[in-house]
């Protein structure tokens, strides 16, 4: 049965709040214009001196679009204050680069200040060609050898595209980022060199360090990138690793950057006929350190020196208040359908959940986005009913979750993650948290996805719902070896030792750098000590899960009530501890980022976050690379959200080229059954073993991916909800969707009070 409640798109652990500050009548009045929120001319209250300018009969709604369609006749003006309960981190230039995840608020700023990508996401989450930037594009399939094919895409951009400072955008602006962050200099500066990994010649180019031309194939020329002329370039996608590819139609998406931002001074993009390259200054060193390392680390947070390509520029950034101010870029030629900005100023600031409605009504905020939960939604709709505000709502393409680190601590064991799931009433959690405006999912999917809808009946019949059961929780723990007491005795007895279960570790379970040998619980409140015990040369790990939570988080509050303060975990012999930090610190611990406060030793195995999709594409290749391939594991470690290594990928490996390119039925037969296919294999095969357009074949892989994920349970989905956006009626043409948030929608808006 299809769920009666669907879900909507978001990438945050916390609610997103956006605001628009405008003057409006502050006293209680029954004569309020639904368009701008000011008092109409028939209001006689002397408190209202600032009257509606003359659209009390809904004239603006008649004159201007309301469906978010393209409209470039607004007069420029107004200030929008976009707020978010996710604190800005200031990483606006290369948001999330070299990290396992990106701050969603920083992504909003990057989206508002970046533009002219050759392909952009539309309101439905699909990639479309950007005709504002692209004059023409051609695709050519090239036969290489032995059935291998490459895909070459030649793109000619329009002349006259301007960055914020007036500099013209050329083909070199599109190639610079790929070249820079496919080189060892990119690794040295921002821990990233994979920008061009899907293109022909990447390995040879990535191996070139400025001194080793021709050594073991290294070369300064990137053969799969061509700078053809000032406005034309090409990219060649390498088969068979990256072509055929199920989403090959999106391979032409390339974004331009200010050359100074990416390359610094003295470096040029060149092509002498064999491929694009960067001039020698890019590879210059002082001692053993690349000179450009300092430039990249500095440029990442430099909001002033370099130009912007998008509809807005960052005019100021206050790190103390975590507030950014953006100004309109009048040089911006438009997005994929020609839409230009008309709101003059955007302020993006931290919003606290407990004050959001007061701020809305006081005129401090004008858009509250992503509202969910019964009480919250009802309060929002009540404000709308009073006049001066409007609402739009949509299904979420995402879900709130418990997320686990799966490479150390008790949470590295599937049985522990399953036991936690069996101990939490997720139906009650979802109903309580969403207030009836949402439901529970049992895997990493959105009901907005076609692949889910095509597999819906089979998934609902076969996914484990992990209905609450202390019996099953104990059973999976015992099957996983959690049968010891703190003194190494067995069977487990809650009256012995410190009262929780222990597991005897094998050497393969010691974790990275043997960290599990010294693992211990933190933020303990009962005065006891819970740590790995060494007894008779064996190591016994405590069933103590360290949970890291962010501040002022209602999901954390409900989890505290249901899990931390409840009895379910204690009854199965598990301890849960809670540590609370700000979101930046949490992100540092989760993604193991030293600059965000991570000290080099992982401590926390569980986090409560949320995830979502801003695109309808579903590709998780490179997210599940296991430690069975140490070189790839290390290279792509930052791309893994959970650091999970699936044992099935050892016995039937994607890295065995004979296993690549198989149909689902062929792979299942060769592996000994579909249930013998691991996460890494499934994630690669579902996009790299399926031809573009073969929906039926893709759906088979999608289904099995969900089944395996549901068994390993790297996350526990908690809720998925319907989101409401409430906005001041002065904002014209505001329309959001699961794949098109307020930071996207605001480009299409105007301010009624600025129209005169």
From TrEMBL:
GO terms for biological process: peptide transport. The keyword Zinc does not apply. The keyword Cell cycle does not apply. Keywords: Signal, Transport. It holds the Pfam family SBP_bac_5. Residues 1-23 form the signal peptide. It comes from the Bacteria. Residues 150-489 form the Solute-binding protein family domain. Belongs to the bacterial solute-binding protein 5 family. This is Solute-binding protein family 5 domain-containing protein. It comes from Candidatus Fimimonas merdipullorum.
